[in-house]
Every structure is written in C-alpha cells, then in structure tokens.
Amino acid sequence: MTLASGRGVRRVSVFQVQTMHSYFKLSPLACACALCSAMAQTTPGEIIITGNPLGREQTSVPASALGRSDLIERGQSTLGETLSGLPGVSSTYFGPNASRPIIRGLDGDRIRVLNNSASSVDVSALSFDHAVPLDVLSTERIEVLRGPAALQYGGSAVGGVVNVIDNRIPREPLSGLSGKAQLQGATGNRERSAAALLESGNARWAWHVDGFDRHTGDVRVPLSVACDKTGETRYAARICNSASQSRGGAVGASTFWDHGYLGASVNTHQSDYGTVAEDQVTIGMKTTRYALEVQQRQLPGWFESVKGRLGHTDYRHTEFDNGAPGTVFANQGQDLRIEARHRALLGWQGVLGAQVESGRFSAVGDEAFAPFSQTRSQALFVHEVLPTAWGQFNAGARWESVRVASLGNPSLDRFEVGTRAFAPWSLAAGTLVQIAPAWRLTGNAAMTQRAPKDYELFANGPHLATHAWEVGNSQLGLEKSRSLDAGLAWQSGPHRMGITAFASDFDNFIALLATGQTQDSLPVQTYQGVKARFRGLEAGGRQRLWQAASTLDLDWRADIVRARNDSTGEPLPRIAPLRLGATLAYAQGPWHAKFGADWHAAQHRVPAGSVATVAYTLANASVSYRQKLPGLTLDWFARIDNLTNQLAYSPTSILTSTAFGKSPLPGRSFKLGVQAGF
C-alpha cells in the first residue's frame, strides 16, 4: 500500500494502516470493504490513496489500482480490456474499440466510470458498441472500487466504481518544469501511438498541458474472418472493421494559497472507430469536458475542510453507414459535488456531502431506440468511521432524488412521453478486525437502491448492437439489492495472500429479456424486473521464491462468479467463468521481466439464446529496462500478448451470441515502446 502526500508517495505495509489509525482515518464505506479489496489486490506493488472522501491525507479506500508503470505494460486501447484480468473484473469486449469493465458480474449503469472522481458523461452504458471517451495514454492511474465502498459515488454504483485519474487540474504546487513523452507500436493491430505532457509552476501557480494520438488497424486473430466492408466478401486473419483513430488533449491550471487551491481544466477526446458487428458501420465520437475544482483546509468551527468539484460535458457521436451519416447520439451533462470533513465528534471521523447531476440525452435517426430525455438527481451522503482498540467500525448512508423524463422524438412517434420520480437510498456498515499482527478479518453489509435509467423506462426501437428490438417499461420500480462480503488477508514481508467471498441478492433486478416476438425481423426484448442472485470468490497473493541480488516472485490470482435469474431459474448472461492465473516476476536493478498465463474455464452456464464458450489459456511475457541519463529517464518496454496465438471467444461479450465468429479475442501481438521523463 502507498500513502500519498502531495505528489510524492510512501510505501507502507497494508497491515500497518491499523496501527496508524490515530493519524489516518478511513472512510466508513471504504473500511466496510477493506478486506475485500485488500485480498483482491493482485497488482504487484502499491495502492494509491485517493479513493475516499476524507481527502489526500488519509488512508486509501482499499482497491485494486494500476499505476503508470502498470498502464505502460498492460494498457490497451479500451478501459475494459486494460482492467480485465484483475480479480473480479472482466470486460464487455465489443471488439477492440468499445469495452466497459464488468465487476463481480455486473455491468452497464451498475458500474460507474469516473474521471478524477467526477462522472464521465457519455453513452457507453447505453450500448455495448459505444466507447468510453477515456484513453490510458493520458492517464496517471486507475482505481477499481468494489462493493459498498462505491456507494459514496452514487447509489447506481451497486457493482463498483472505476476512477480514471490524471493531473489535469494540479492539486499541489509544482516546482520547475517537468514532462513525459511516450511512443509505442504493436504488431497485432498495427498500432502507432504517441503521448506527451508538460507541467510547471511554483508555490502559487501551476499549469498542465497534455496530448495523445493513437492509430490502429484491423486486429489480427488466429483464423480467417469474412469481411464485406468493400462491398464484396473477402477473408483475412483480422477482425473486419476494427481499425480506429483516437486523439485528444487538455490544458489546466491552478492557483494556490496557504490552505487551499482553485483549479480549472478543459479536455477533449475524439475517436473514429469501426463497430465490428457491422462491416460498414463506423462511429465518429467527440467529447469536451470543462472542470472546476476548489478546496479549503484548516477551517474554523465544525468542519476541518471543504472541497467542491463542478463539471460540464458535451458528448456527441455519429454512426456512419458506408460513410453516410446515420443516427446521432448526444449527451450534455453537469455535475456538482461538495464534501465537508467534520472534526471528531465522540470519536467519529467522517464526511458530509451533497451531489447534483443533470443530463440531457438525444438520439436522432431511424435507428434511435431511446427517446430524447432529461435526467436530474440530487443526493446527500454521510460516511463515518469509529476507530477502536480492535479495529474499526464503519457506517454510511446515501439518499437520492431522481427524476427521469422522456421527451419523445420529433421525428419518431413510437416513444412514450412521461416522467418518473424516484427516491432511492442506500445504507452500509462494516467492521474491520486485526486478529493478529499479520492477519486481518473484515465483514460488511449494504442495502442499496438504484433508479431505472431512461432507456430502461422508455426505449422502443431497433438496437443493432444487441441485435434486438428493445422495449422499455415505464412502470419499473427501484432496483433493490442486499450485499454481504467477508474475507481474510495475511501478509508477512514480501509474502501476501487474501480471499474474499461475496453475495448479492436483488429484488427487481432490471434485465433485458426475450419475449418470443419479432418486429422488423428483430427479436423483441423488454426490460423487466426479476429476482437475481450473485455469488463469488476473489483471491490473490504473492510468494517470494528468491531474493539475493535479484528477486523472483510468483503472483497468483483466481476468481469465480455465479449469477442466476431466480424468477426463471436460468443463469444470467455474460458472466465470466472460473479464472485462474499466475505470473513469474523477475527483477534485477533496472531490469524487470514477467511471464504469465491465465486460464479461463468453459462457460456452459448460459441462458437460452446465448452461446456457450470453451476453455482457453492466454499467455503473455514482458520485459522492461529503466535507463537513466543526465536530466532524463527512459523506460523501455516490450510485451507479447497471447503468446501461443490461442483462438478464444469472450463469454462476457454480447458479440459471442449475436455475431459469433466475427470478433474473437485478439491473436498474438508484440508491443514495443519507450517513455521519456524529465
């Protein structure tokens, strides 16, 4: 684990945190799942502490994290594929260009994607072929919060939160000029990428500027795939229509005073990519975000500090059919979050907060399957922690008011017009017990409620990504869940291990289910509330095999999720099977090398209409070297993915059922790159 203060970090044992509780107080919901995340953490090295509302000076929300070195090694062109393989995390994989994370079997709007703890306003949860407008080339680190700790960011985040963090608003004074530049290429998708950033400042001012550019071609796979993109059928060992171009950048600046700062930034992201399910359909996407952030510390009175964030996002993408513009999706949103940390009250430490979000969505075109809509939400939340002699007790609550309005569509008369209002609330509590110097036990429980989304209420149209005519249900009520997780973690020197068991039961789990009817040659699917249950295990650890002038470690990981529709008795779709993985990690001086493999079991637990997948193993190897020159550091890296060129299909991708054979997982690919820093 790592403690962060300013722009520096300090490594500490994850089990030293308890002994430092008088100095570092965890957020309540964070501590509620402390063991779960600590046990699930398999990224060798560190956890960065930012994912809790008590601020930078506090211990971390225990979570899996990928720092900059991890992102250099395993970063992919999509957020989902970059995180896939972390314990409990898989990917929706709609080809190589559109992929969202799945956490503990939950996807879509049950997973919140944040940028610097603020909502990422887009339409990626609306459809599997819509990309998340974030790129790892411009990212400093990514945190994954599982279970109840995610509730501080919204009641809809019942599965978890993915927080993509950058320094586009400097939060600490800078000294002098610093920068980074990265170049990389890959053979599997003919990638050519470049990224750079510059930062400078003094005790009162700081500024940041960055940019990136990524070009990829069609992705190589282990078998020949038919392609009709040119108007005639051709066969090649590449995924048809999977090329992409992405670019973007940002500028930001902050001013500092003795106990606070005020900063602002503007960033843009553009991407043009093929949708892979349809050979002649591409998407042109552009998003621009404006952000303002302020914090004041060392206040008099009841509150120690107050922090506020305000953001505005304009998102738009156009779907092109053989070059001709088709459906245009747009989403304009604002978000405001205020957090106030209070002084100790009867031993309790914590944060009170308020959050306001609003969004205006539109889809214009014959294939618009959701109406124009407005969504507004307000929330109040509290997170508290009580340190004890034996550990900690944590509690938290969140209340929301959500209003969803369908405005119809001026060009299409098939949509229902109306408004629904909801008042979801969520509670969480947990304990953390240090049962021995090297052993920690944690248990937590949560009750959550989620308001239906606009498309779940009012959709009515052809959705080619799911190959269905989707119909919403305006009478849907709140989605309610009850969750438990418990686990055990151990660490002794460089050795560590942990295991977590979790269970979630849903009332009115909102699922898209077949009706047996057809419309315009498409099967009709409707959003319905069903009873559902999720059960699973996550485990991981590290064993030091050798230590002298060099070190050799064995990292291992495992997870499994079982999810069932209790209303029908069938399994829920797109659930990852049992996964087992291990990596040998060697380090000597500036050299680091890894060799690993991940085995995915066959997935036969699928509902009617879904396709079962066979077992497969993906192997990879990497090597890196840090070269230090006067005033410059060069990090060279090379990696081979899918070393054996294994043919595999993702059990968590809808393409496996709706377009089987068109988009297998990528074949063997060699990546080479360098990052320079000064």
UniProtKB/TrEMBL annotation:
Keywords: Cell outer membrane, Membrane, Receptor, TonB box, Transmembrane, Transmembrane beta strand, Transport. Gene3D superfamilies: TonB-dependent receptor, beta-barrel domain (2.40.170.20), TonB-dependent receptor, plug domain (2.170.130.10). It holds the Pfam family Plug. PROSITE patterns: TONB_DEPENDENT_REC_3 (PS52016). InterPro entries: Beta-barrel_TonB (IPR000531), Beta-barrel_TonB_sf (IPR036942), Plug_dom (IPR012910), Plug_dom_sf (IPR037066), TonB-dep_rcpt-like (IPR039426). Residues 255-643 form the TonB-dependent receptor-like beta-barrel domain. The keyword Transmembrane helix does not apply. It is a multi-pass membrane protein. Signal peptide: none annotated. GO terms for molecular function: siderophore uptake transmembrane transporter activity. Belongs to the TonB-dependent receptor family. This is TonB-dependent receptor. It comes from Limnohabitans radicicola.
